[in-house]
Automatic annotation (TrEMBL):
<dbReference type="InterPro" id="IPR042099">
    <property type="entry name" value="ANL_N_sf"/>
</dbReference>
<dbReference type="GO" id="GO:0000166">
    <property type="term" value="F:nucleotide binding"/>
</dbReference>
<protein>
    <submittedName>
        <fullName>Phenylacetate-coenzyme A ligase</fullName>
        <ecNumber>6.2.1.30</ecNumber>
    </submittedName>
</protein>
<comment type="pathway">
    <text>Aromatic compound metabolism.</text>
</comment>
<comment type="subunit">
    <text>Monomer.</text>
</comment>
<dbReference type="GO" id="GO:0010124">
    <property type="term" value="P:phenylacetate catabolic process"/>
</dbReference>
<dbReference type="Pfam" id="PF00501">
    <property type="entry name" value="AMP-binding"/>
</dbReference>
<dbReference type="Pfam" id="PF14535">
    <property type="entry name" value="AMP-binding_C_2"/>
</dbReference>
<dbReference type="InterPro" id="IPR051414">
    <property type="entry name" value="Adenylate-forming_Reductase"/>
</dbReference>
<dbReference type="GO" id="GO:0047475">
    <property type="term" value="F:phenylacetate-CoA ligase activity"/>
</dbReference>
<keyword id="KW-0547">Nucleotide-binding</keyword>
<dbReference type="InterPro" id="IPR028154">
    <property type="entry name" value="AMP-dep_Lig_C"/>
</dbReference>
<dbReference type="InterPro" id="IPR045851">
    <property type="entry name" value="AMP-bd_C_sf"/>
</dbReference>
<keyword id="KW-0436">Ligase</keyword>
<feature type="domain" description="AMP-dependent ligase C-terminal">
    <location>
        <begin position="335"/>
        <end position="430"/>
    </location>
</feature>
<keyword id="KW-0597">Phosphoprotein</keyword>
<feature type="domain" description="AMP-dependent synthetase/ligase">
    <location>
        <begin position="57"/>
        <end position="286"/>
    </location>
</feature>
Length: 432
């Protein structure tokens, strides 16, 4: 097993916790002294930096929210002067002001270090050629992955998103060994390659995919691995925390969260008390080393679970399990929470169905109606009965998972619009 930073990655859990304590104590003093936002927040809650003596005191600290970042637009939560920043990214907020994230040189270095550990853990090194097909620009995906890739000394190809034909050609011609993009875009690359008779399965160089920026299911992983012959790994991050940060290891059972850099808590959303190891709750993250925009107990809005035992790969850092979905992606239909990822996990277990689908929500009188447009891999059968059986199966499986009935509409291959980045899965026609 190769490690990027073996001493840290396999550090004894007790020592790791002591390191977290030490860094947390430093952090609370740092934010109190350097950010008017945090000083005000601590003062309002009657908390003094000296009250925090170790990680055991973390629950005394107040939470921070996405709303705080919006309310203090653009840089009200920052702890350094703008002239100390070396880079700024911003979220692609469709409504209102974006969230602005700043980085010092150390922040950029730690971000690259975090991904360098992850990329190494999935077996990549300086001999690899990484194609970064995440968007470059204000979005953190492209540049984040780029710096991580360069950090391990890999050859980095910044294709960014889009231009599918060129993506495929470069992949083949340059002997790319790993590709990074959204799982939905990679599904599209597989499809286009197959259509052109150059199936990715025949590409002997390509062996790893690192997919993120949207929640995806275990069943889509199986589908991707089967159809492309690569190993598909999940990556987690969000712009507020830096960008893409944590990947799975070869076990493919959760993404290692580097505990020397971040504290993760999983809390019961009703009581905000910690849940038991492995139980699902709200993900709350504290950044331990960030200088420009440190976040204390930041409530990202994701539901997740964490496993803390030592991983068979030897790493002692906690594993964030596959996310059920982001609260931003959740839709409420007839009072029931629906995550597009749940629909995907059902559909990907059905071989006749392609990875592309669309959820359409309409209001019919007082009631919400949910239709799922399901694209088939092949619609050449002339037996109506086949289609009816398929509709009945999809409808039954979805009802079991969602506890909600949906109308199923089968559509021809290629009907659902393909996305080069984060896939659009929902059209909500309701007017609130
Ligand atoms: Zn592991």
């Amino acid at each position: 097993m190769a490690y990027w930073n073996q001493e840290i990655e396999t550090m004894d859990p007790a020592r790791l916790r002591a390191l977290q304590s030490e860094r947390l104590v430093k952090l609370v003093h740092y934010v109190y002294e350097n950010s008017p936002f945090y000083k005000k927040l601590f003062d309002e809650k009657g908390i003094k930096p000296d009250d925090i003596k170790s990680i055991d005191d973390i629950q005394k600290l107040p939470f921070t929210f996405k709303k705080d970042l919006r309310d203090t637009y653009p840089t009200g939560m920052f702890c350094v002067k703008n002239t100390d920043l070396v880079r700024i990214h911003a979220s692609s907020g469709t409504t209102g002001k974006p969230i602005v994230v700043g980085y010092t040189q150390n922040d950029i270095d730690n971000w690259a270090e975090s991904l360098a550990r992850g990329f190494t853990s999935v077996g990549l090194d300086q001999d690899d050629i990484l194609q970064v097909s995440y968007g470059y620009g204000l979005f953190t995906g492209g540049l984040g992955a780029h710096y991580g890739s360069e950090r391990i000394g890999a050859t980095t190809i910044p294709t960014s998103s889009g231009n599918t034909e060129r993506q495929l050609s470069l992949m083949e011609d340059l002997g790319v060994t790993a590709v990074l993009c959204t799982p939905s875009y990679f599904s599209y690359l597989i499809e286009v390659a197959e259509k052109e008779g150059r199936s990715l399965k025949n590409n002997k160089s390509l062996r790893v995919g690192i997919f993120g920026a949207e929640p995806w299911s275990e069943s889509l992983r199986h589908r991707i691995e089967e159809r492309s012959g690569i190993k598909a790994y999940d990556v987690f991050g969000t712009s507020e925390l830096s960008g893409p940060l944590f990947t799975e290891c070869p076990e493919q059972k959760g993404m290692h969260v580097w505990a020397d850099m971040f504290i993760v808590e999983i809390l019961n959303p009703d009581t905000m008390e910690p849940v038991k190891d492995g139980e699902t709750g709200e993900l709350v993250v504290t950044t331990l080393l960030k200088e420009a925009l440190p976040l204390i107990r930041y409530r990202i809005g994701d539901l997740a679970s964490v496993e803390t035992g030592v991983c068979p790969c030897g790493r002692t850092h906690p594993r964030l399990m596959r996310l059920k979905g982001r609260s931003d992606d959740m839709i409420i239909v007839r009072g029931i929470n629906v995550f597009p990822g749940q629909v995907e996990s059902v559909l990907m277990k059905i071989p006749e169905v392609s990875p592309h689908f669309m959820i359409i929500i309409e209001r019919n009188g007082e009631l919400d109606d949910m239709t799922v447009q399901v694209e088939l891999n092949d619609m050449s059968s002339d037996k109506v009965d086949d289609y009816n059986k398929l509709i009945a199966r999809i409808s039954h499986d979805l009802r079991t998972v969602l506890t909600l009935s949906a109308s199923i509409e089968l559509v021809n291959p290629g009907t659902i619009p393909r996305s080069e980045g984060k896939a659009k899965r929902v059209i909500d026609k309701r007017k609130f």
